[in-house]
Design a protein that fits this description.
The protein is of the alpha/beta class and about 210 residues long. The chain has one domain: Alpha-Beta Complex (Lambda Exonuclease, Chain A). It is about 40% helix and about 25% strand. The protein has seven helices and seven strands; from the N terminus they run E-H-H-H-E-E-E-E-H-E-E-H-H-H. Strands 1, 2, 3, 4, 5, 6 and 7 form a seven-stranded mixed beta sheet that branches. Strand 6 and strand 7 form a beta hairpin. Helix 1 runs antiparallel to helix 2 and helix 4 crosses helix 5. The longest helix has 20 residues. The protein is globular and about 60 Å long. The N and C termini lie far apart (about 50 Å).
């Protein structure tokens, strides 16, 4: 399937969806956002990475804030950093995504990185077999091999995300350990929301009460 430009969602929406479909819907359908210490740290880290500057060091070019787009995934956005390595007279891209904290047990970060690689492949016509995740807490890079399994996971997640957002329905809350660090916990109210209610509907009902 090929999407039109008007149908593209932000790359960040895919990361939100893989982490928690409800979080994705609250942000991108209900336009609810709130900061906490974790989002503030992430924004500071990305501001440093997304300067838009490009530099060259011998056989290495470093581009920051590079615009990305994939019409097959239906996503657009920008990469924190894309390194271009010169091999056999060709500059080969290697995306690097900056994250606060440390490596996660879920696939949200890896899927977001893979989506960036697919964007680069479509835009440049070059294979991107590997990328890296840089975690600010550990100050170390984690190499991610973008194999067929991860690519299939990414494509399926993007497809499901589009279906959810197109339907315009916010999933019911699921209270689990993800909620502990989510900045939208106050709007989501996972422990109190009734099944099938959106946060917007819940808050609207509260306003009606005397």
């Amino acid at each position: 399937m090929t999407f039109q430009a008007a149908e593209l969602w932000p790359l960040s929406a895919l990361q939100h969806y893989v982490f928690c479909p409800r979080q994705c819907a609250l942000i991108h359908l209900e336009l609810i956002w709130a900061d906490n210490i974790f989002t503030a740290q992430g924004q500071t880290l990305h501001q440093k990475a997304d300067s838009g500057k490009t530099e060259k060091r011998g056989d290495l070019k470093i581009a920051t804030g590079l615009p990305l787009q994939s019409l097959t995934l239906g996503l657009s956005g920008q990469a924190d950093v894309v390194e271009f390595h010169l091999r056999e007279k060709q500059w080969w891209p290697h995306p690097v995504e900056y994250k606060r904290g440390r490596p996660k047990s879920h696939d949200a970060d890896r899927v977001q990185l893979c989506a960036q690689a697919i964007c680069l492949e479509e835009m440049l016509g070059l294979a991107v077999p590997e990328g890296s995740l840089f975690y600010n807490q550990t100050k170390r890079r984690l190499a991610v091999f973008l194999d067929s399994d991860l690519r299939e996971t990414t494509r399926r997640a993007a497809g499901r995300m589009h279906q959810m957002l197109q339907a315009g329905k916010t999933p019911s809350p699921v209270a689990d350990k993800r909620c502990q660090t989510c900045s939208l916990k106050g709007a989501c109210l996972p422990e109190h929301m009734k099944s099938g209610d959106s946060s917007a509907r819940y808050l609207a009902n509260l306003r009606k009460k005397p």
